[in-house]
Amino acid sequence: MSATLLPASRDPRAADLLRAAFRDVHGPRLHGFALLLTLGDASLAGAAASRALAAGTARADELRHPERAAAWLRARVLREVRRSAAGHAVPVDIRHAALGSLQVGPAAVKALAQLPVEERAALVAGAIERLDITDVATVLGQSLGVTRDLLYVARTHYLAAASHELRENPIPSLPEGEISRRVDDAAAWAIGRPRGAAAP
To answer: CA 68 to CA 136: how far, in whole Å?
Structure first.
């Protein structure tokens, strides 16, 4: 996140501009994080992101560093999702449609669904959004050591789940080499590597 928020001012108009800029900078990506965290539960994601954004906007003058603000907001979303995790029976097709707007395919959704919510949060914040490890620790409310371990475990679990899903349910009429490429693409999506790039 490279956007810079407006300087602090006691002018009420400047404060309004600051809050508007805060919403513009953080709103869309925060909603995307919430959608991935909830596996496409648009209602829960929207409510969690809206509450977090409202709380952050009220503190926009304090949350001036974009990455630190992003971590603070995601920690609030994670807290909301933890509280509301039970009882949300959203049809699979609706979830997939919601995540389709983020270009997340069914195989990736099923792989993400294999992860506990903390691992999912670590993976999305650290490997996909590429927040700094200290900011991922803020999202999770954990120490740096625990966060590094959790991110490693999350990546490992996701790669295994995505590979299994695409091999068990290959896309019809694709040659073997193309199926393998799709598996590699799903893995790349999880670890933040550009699709088609060689692994380090």
So the answer is: 10
Q: Count Cα atoms within 13 angstroms, Cβ side, for 154.
A: 27
Residue 148 near residue 133, CB atoms below 8 Å = yes
Could you give the 3-state DSSP secondary structure of residue 65? coil
pLDDT single digits (tens) 31-57:
889 999 999 999 999 999 989 988 887
Whole-model pTM above 0.85? Answer: no
On the CB side of 18, CA atoms within 13 Å amount to: 21
* Dihedral angle sign, alpha carbons of residues 103, 147, 113, 79: negative
List b or e across 19-48, with b for residues whose CB sees 16 or more CB atoms inside 10 angstroms. Answer: bebbbebbbeebbbbbbbbbbbbbebbebb
Distance CA 89, CA 92 (A): 9
